[in-house]
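Continuing from yesterday's entry. The apo prediction looked reasonable, so today I'm repeating it with pyridoxal-5'-phosphate included to see how the binding region is handled. Same sequence as before; SMILES copied from the compound registry.
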Amino acid sequence: MALRLVRKYTGRFEVIALMRGYHGQSYGSASITGRGGMLREGYGPMPTGASFVPPPYTYRCQFCKGEACCNLGCADAAEYVIDTSTSGKPAAFFFEPMMSAAGQIVPSKEWIHRMVEICKARDILMVAPEALTCFGRTGKWFAFEHFDFVPDIVTCSKGLGGGVPLCAVVTSAEIADGAVAKGYMPFSSHAGDPLLCATGLANIEIVERDNLVENARVVGAYFMEKLLKMQNQYEIAGEARGLGLCRALTGGSSVSIVLMPVRLSTPGSWPRSPPRRTPASVPGP
Ligand SMILES: Cc1ncc(COP(=O)(O)O)c(C=O)c1O
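Holo prediction written out below.
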C-alpha cells in the first residue's frame, strides 16, 4: 500500500531501500526487500524501480571497518547510489528505523539525520516501516522516536493488531488527500474492517492502560544488561543490541551455525527425509 501511495502521490516510481531490509513476500514488498537467495530464486523478475543502499550496520560495516567509530561511509554510499543509479529523484526511501528481521540493527542518530538531509535535498519521501516495532515494543510508541525525526509515512502491522492480522499506513492529510485526489484507492475487501479495527483499538488501549511502552523500556534495559554480560562472557557471542524488548545477540564472525533437521515428538513424523543442509560456517546476522 505504501509503495503504491508514494508512487501515486509523487508521480515517480523509483524508490530506495536498504540491503538486508525486510518488507514481506508479496511482489511489491519483495521488490524492496534487500535479501537475495531463497526470497528471490524461482519467482522471476521483481517489479522494477528499487535501488538498494548499504544498511547502517556498524558491527559488520564495510565502510568503517578498522576505524574507531562510524564515518558515515554507508550514508555517502547511499547518496552515491541515488545519484548514479536513479534519476536522482526517487519517490521514497523505505527503511526500518530499527531493522527488525535483519537482526535488530539500530542505526545511529547521525546516520538517520544524514539520510534526512540527502532525502530532503532530492524531495524523497521517508517511509518508516514499523511492522514489528510499532506501538511500544522498542520502549517508545514508535522506533523512529528514538532518533528525533519524523518520517513522512509510517507503516504498522504486528504491533498494531497484537496477534490479529491488521495493518495501517499512516501519513499526513496532505499526502493522503493528495494521493486520493490523483486517483489513489486505498481499498480492499478488508480495508477498514470494523472487527479488525476494533481489535486494533482495544490493543492500543491495553498497551496504554498497562503502561506497556514503559514496561518495554524498563524490562528491555534489564534484558540488554543480561545480553551484554553474555556478549562479554562468551567468545562465540558477537554483539548485543536492539531497543526496548526488541533485542538480539548475534554470533561472532567465527561462529559456525550448524543447521540440523528437527525431529518432532512422534517418531517418523515430519521431516521424513531430513532437509539436506550441510553445516555452514556463516556469520550471524
Ligand atoms: C518491517 C517488516 N515489514 C514487513 C514484514 C513482513 O511481515 P509479513 O511477512 O507477516 O507480511 C516484517 C516481518 O518481520 C517486518 O519486520
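Comparison notes:
- The pocket of pyridoxal-5'-phosphate is lined by residues 22-25, 96, 100-101, 129, 131-132 (CB under 6 Å).
- The beta strands are 15-18, 50-53, 92-94, 125-130, 153-156, 168-171, 237-243, 246-251.
Will overlay with the apo model tomorrow.
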